[in-house]
Amino acid sequence: MDIGIIACGALAYEIETIAQQNSLDLTIYPLPPLLHNHPEKIAGEVDRLLNEMASKHRKCAVAYADCGTYGALDLVLKAHNVARLAGNHCYDVFAGRATMEKLMAENAGTYFLTDYLVKAFYRSVVVELGLDRRPDLRDDYFKNYSKVIWLAQTPTPELEVAARAAADLLQLPLEVQIVGHSGLATQILTLVRS
Question: What is the value of pTM for the model shown?
């Protein structure tokens, strides 16, 4: 394969779709989405995979934003001379950095969802935080939040029901902003064509 791309597992399906739509010759190496619950491990996992795949591809890229690594991912990528998605997190990638800065300036107490997080909310949030066993911890984790914004890439009635259920579990109002896939598509195309 021509290009190897390490991807957050939460983005792998969308990247595969973008690759097919644009006839890209690439192999996706997904990492578990739950790494986001331990961002200190992301850089090490990316480094390990880059070492494994470097000789297999003409070019490598990384489909992660900083994702809470506080620059550790960038140090790994600099050592490998590999680029990543721009931004602090996937919300920047989907909605755009300016939009995210505006939303955060308007209300820093916003909890964001993507389509993936809507689908995986129970496993990624409820189980990982222990709320399935200790629902009383909800206030400890979420007392400073005032609303949920679902940054919808491909909204469906089923996903909206799941997003509302997630917001209800957090006891917060839900706002839906349709952002689509164009931000991710633009960044993926830039990564693989530059």
Answer: 0.91
